[in-house]
Design brief:
The complex is a heterodimer. Chain A is mostly beta strands. Chain A is built from no helices and eleven strands. The radius of gyration of chain B is 13 Å and the shape is globular. Classes of the chains: A mainly beta, B mainly beta.
């Protein structure tokens, strides 16, 4: 059964820092991995989707990498801003299966 | 504009009432999902659908029911609300069955008194 973990559970950084969020999964035969952002009391916003054949995806200041063999993905946020404060979740799925979500990393970027 | 909608956004209701949470998407996606999330806690899949007339139970047991009569519409019903049903309910959709990108609605925050 696929299990997803995220480290750290919470992170607080000063504005302008570059930071890395980690996601690990137990079954490396994944089809997709998706990173989301969730603001308090809101729905999830899709940030990046990495297909199993890809190694990384970039969108603006965000870069997500995927290492299937080691069961890991990282989300890199460059030049963090207070507006980046949110909970970041990763989700993975094996072909034909539903997505399995991690518990999330709660990020606070201090001005 | 293609999007996914949920109504109501907030609902406060008394114990024993029947409620229906609405979810609609205009992206033409086949697969739709309902998740339950308590504040600060993980998402739990409670229902999903592969398409019209298809409904499946998710990983977390729920007293709610769903229906899928039209591709774009996936309502969730609680026949008799209880305080234990207080939570946020999130609807999502994706294209196809292989696990394509998921898109989420804004959520419905339900409080049962």
């Amino acid at each position: 059964k696929q299990e997803v973990t995220q480290i750290p559970a919470a992170l607080s950084v000063p504005e302008g820092e570059n930071l890395v969020l980690n996601c690990s999964f137990t079954d490396s035969a994944i089809y997709n991995l998706q990173w989301f952002r969730q603001d308090p009391g809101k729905g999830l916003t899709s940030l990046l989707l990495i297909q199993s054949s890809q190694r990384e995806q970039t969108s603006g200041r965000l870069n997500a990498s995927l290492d299937k063999s080691s069961g890991r993905s990282t989300l890199y946020i460059a030049a963090s801003q207070p507006g980046d404060s949110a909970t970041y979740l990763c989700a993975v799925n094996n072909y034909g299966q539903n997505f399995v979500f991690g518990p999330g990393t709660r990020l606070s970027v201090l001005p | 504009e293609a999007d996914i909608y949920q109504t109501p956004r907030y609902l406060v209701i008394g114990t024993g009432k029947k409620i229906t949470l609405e979810c609609s998407q205009t992206m033409g996606h086949d697969k739709m999902y309902w998740y339950q999330q308590d504040p600060g806690m993980e998402l739990h899949l409670i229902h999903y659908s592969y398409g019209v007339n298809s409904t499946e139970k998710g990983d977390l047991s729920s007293e709610s029911t769903v229906s899928r009569i039209r591709t774009e519409h996936f309502p969730l019903t609680l026949e008799s609300a209880r305080p234990s049903h207080t939570s946020q309910y999130l609807c999502a959709s994706s294209e196809g069955s292989g696990g394509n990108e998921q898109f989420f609605g804004p959520g419905t925050r339900l409080t049962v008194l």
